[in-house]
């Protein structure tokens, strides 16, 4: 007699009224098909049911269970979300079969301990993994909110303060602060470190030839004791360059042409350890119609120049940093995982929780945000024509270095600048993740050879390289992995990107962008070609129309909303690892994360504008919004 426990998921629609049958498969053979009693409560949402089945032979060690569904009477087949099955053998040994997936017709669930496939793997398991992946490959083949009154208003804003009317439909503590300090140079600079786009800024070792900033220009900012050359040598000069926006077509909104600049902004770490802008040029090509704006210019000249930079930053942030470098990469990782790693593989168990809802949110983004008629078409200068162009250019710039936080920080020369909280908090999380991943990998892979010879793992890495990076060798993204160390780094990168990196560039969107002048989605006058004649009126005329602003703000509001059933970083409520040791590793990881969280929360209490986005207790496990 075998004792079964069958657990249905708790989602409202998880249950099924179909007939369910089971076959137990062991090393000595398999049982007959046993139909489980069809009682209405056996497979309803949240059901935990026990059954006994009689098998007249010794099946030996159990390897998998096969669940099948059939129509009950004339009812339609309805899918069933099964969490797991446990089986207790006549001699008392207990096996767990975790699934946590929808079943549409039938499924084979391997026993829960993670298995890296080798020549010695039982043929039944090899066959199960092959069939599972073949089916997955077939299914994964290749890859509003209306604000009444504002949504239909195609006018310019008349008074800057009116923008509060839209933003105030939902305020956040931080968005209020941003609307008060947005004009401050130190706030403008701090956003390169702790804002939504913290991966663009680089240490400047030489001012680019097409940005002819002179000592005389920056002398009022730097003061008498130093000069540009000295400050470059001290490592105190930084550059934000938006060259990537060159050649991106501009949208037409409300039948008016829109404009995009390709700014270059020089920043200085001053003796108070603030990062402040000291020169802004709004084009990549210098000339007499391309003034270099300075903090010593008139108030409106300088504000307008900074607004233009913020608008360029919005485009690069949303299309490159956010969409491409988190959402779309996570999609590539997710699809390759489903196609190449069977559910019994330890890597599958490790990373699948980090893809929860990613395909769903991306398909929403394709239709409602970046697709024809979507929010970008309605409200952003990039629109549906510009987004693919930025994506293509941003893709060319993605490298393995840029994807791995510690290397990226070093690559941009940003190791030493103070108050770079994206770096400081991110590195702590990276280290905790790396140690968790390394525990798991060293448990399942006892040698580098095992990594090299794991065909499923290698196929997974190769598919990501082929489909995600289009076999671009210059990116230095690995196409195979030969050691445990390289596997640990790769997996840390995948998990970090899908969780912490996305949180850093996603969660603050409402905080930073709901005060529209801090991140205009578009500009509707050309960049200023002269200095001295800009006024508040010029600025209001250049900012997005009322309805574009409303569309932008309502979108960032949605995108900053936490999902109802959020999973925090390191939370794995579905017990995919059934063995004790990996479960202990998970606990340890969670403890480390909660220590990091405590430190960050204590620090944030002392800050005027806190940086909560990389507090592990605020980070989602996956790209889900
Ligand atoms: Fe997002």
Short précis:
This protein is 42% helix and 13% strand.
The second-level CATH architecture of the domain at 2-111 is Sandwich
Structural class: alpha+beta
Please write the CATH class name of the domain at 2-111: Mainly Beta
Give me the count of strands: 16
Task: Give me the Rg, rounded.
Answer: 28 Å
Shape: elongated
> Which stretches are low in confidence, meaning pLDDT under 50 for 5 or more residues running?
142-149
Would you spell out the secondary-structure blueprint of this structure?
Layout: E1 2-8, E2 19-26, E3 29-30, E4 34-35, E5 48-53, E6 62-70, E7 80-88, E8 94-103, E9 106-110, H1 123-139, H2 163-167, H3 173-181, H4 185-194, E10 202-203, H5 215-222, H6 228-233, E11 237-241, E12 252-253, E13 256-257, E14 264-269, E15 275-281, E16 292-293, H7 299-340, H8 346-351, H9 358-369, H10 375-379, H11 383-397, H12 400-403, H13 405-411, H14 421-444, H15 448-452, H16 455-468, H17 484-506, H18 509-513, H19 536-542, H20 546-559, H21 580-604
Antiparallel strand pairs: 1-5, 1-7, 2-3, 2-4, 2-6, 6-9, 7-8, 10-11, 11-14, 12-13, 14-15, 15-16
Helix pairs in contact: 7-9, 7-11, 7-16, 7-17, 14-17, 14-21
The structure holds fe (ii) ion.
Question: Notable features of this structure?
Answer:
alpha+beta, Lipoxygenase-1, five-stranded antiparallel beta sheet, 21 helices, 16 strands, binds fe (ii) ion
């Amino acid at each position: 007699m075998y004792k079964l426990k069958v657990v249905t998921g708790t989602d409202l629609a998880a249950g099924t009224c179909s007939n369910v049958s089971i076959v137990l498969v062991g090393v000595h053979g398999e049982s007959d098909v046993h139909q489980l009693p069809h009682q209405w409560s056996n497979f309803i949402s949240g059901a935990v049911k026990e059954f006994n089945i009689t098998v007249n032979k010794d099946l030996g060690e159990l390897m998998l269970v096969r669940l099948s569904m059939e129509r009950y009477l004339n009812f339609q087949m309805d899918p069933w979300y099964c969490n797991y099955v446990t089986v207790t053998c006549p001699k008392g040994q207990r096996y767990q079969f975790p699934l946590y997936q929808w079943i549409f017709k039938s499924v084979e669930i391997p026993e829960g301990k993670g298995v890296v496939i080798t020549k010695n793997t039982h043929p039944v398991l090899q066959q199960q993994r092959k069939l599972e992946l073949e089916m997955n490959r077939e299914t994964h083949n290749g890859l509003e909110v209306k604000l009444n009154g504002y949504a239909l208003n195609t006018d310019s804003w008349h008074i800057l303060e009116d923008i509060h009317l839209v933003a105030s439909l939902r305020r956040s503590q931080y968005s209020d602060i941003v609307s008060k300090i947005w004009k401050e140079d130190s706030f403008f600079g701090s956003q390169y470190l702790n804002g939504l786009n913290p991966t663009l800024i680089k240490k400047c070792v030489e001012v680019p030839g097409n940005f002819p900033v002179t000592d005389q220009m920056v002398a009022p900012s730097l003061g008498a004791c130093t000069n540009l050359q000295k400050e470059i040598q001290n490592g105190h000069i930084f550059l934000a360059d938006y060259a990537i926006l060159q050649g991106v077509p501009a949208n037409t909104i409300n039948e008016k042409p829109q404009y995009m600049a390709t700014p270059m902004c020089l920043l200085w770490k001053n003796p108070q350890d603030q990062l402040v802008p000291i020169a802004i040029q709004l084009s990549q090509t210098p000339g007499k119609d391309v003034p270099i704006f300075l903090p010593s210019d008139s108030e409106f000249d300088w504000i307008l120049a900074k607004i233009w930079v913020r608008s360029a930053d919005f485009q690069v942030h949303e299309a490159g940093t956010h969409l491409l470098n988190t959402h779309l990469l996570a999609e590539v990782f997710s699809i390759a995982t489903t196609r190449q790693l069977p559910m019994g593989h330890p890597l599958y168990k490790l990373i699948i929780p980090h893809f929860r809802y990613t395909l769903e949110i991306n398909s929403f983004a394709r239709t409602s945000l970046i697709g024809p008629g979507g929010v970008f078409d309605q409200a952003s200068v990039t629109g549906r024509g510009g987004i693919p162009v930025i994506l293509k250019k941003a893709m060319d710039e993605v490298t393995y270095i840029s994807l791995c936080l510690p290397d990226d920080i070093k690559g941009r020369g940003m190791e030493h600048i103070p108050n770079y909280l994206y770096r400081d908090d991110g590195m702590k999380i990276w280290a905790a993740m790396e140690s968790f991943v390394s525990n798991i990998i060293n448990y399942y892979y006892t040698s580098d050879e095992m990594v090299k010879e794991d065909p499923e793992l290698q196929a997974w890495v190769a598919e990501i390289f082929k489909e995600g990076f289009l076999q671009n060798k210059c990116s230095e993204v690995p196409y195979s992995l030969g050691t445990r160390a390289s596997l640990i780094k790769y997996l840390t990168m995948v998990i970090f990107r899908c969780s912490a990196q996305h949180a850093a560039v996603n969660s603050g969107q409402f905080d930073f962008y709901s005060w529209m002048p801090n991140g205009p989605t578009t500009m509707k006058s050309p960049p200023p070609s002269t200095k001295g004649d800009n006024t508040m009126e010029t600025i209001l005329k250049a900012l997005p129309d009322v309805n574009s602003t409303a569309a932008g703000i309502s979108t960032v509001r949605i995108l900053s909303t936490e999902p109802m059933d959020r999973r925090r970083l390191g939370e794995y409520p579905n017990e995919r690892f059934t063995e004790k040791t990996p479960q202990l590793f998970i606990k340890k990881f969670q403890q480390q994360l909660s220590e990091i969280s405590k430190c960050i929360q204590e620090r944030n209490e002392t800050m005027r504008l806190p940086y909560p986005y990389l507090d592990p207790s605020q980070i989602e496990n996956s790209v889900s919004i």
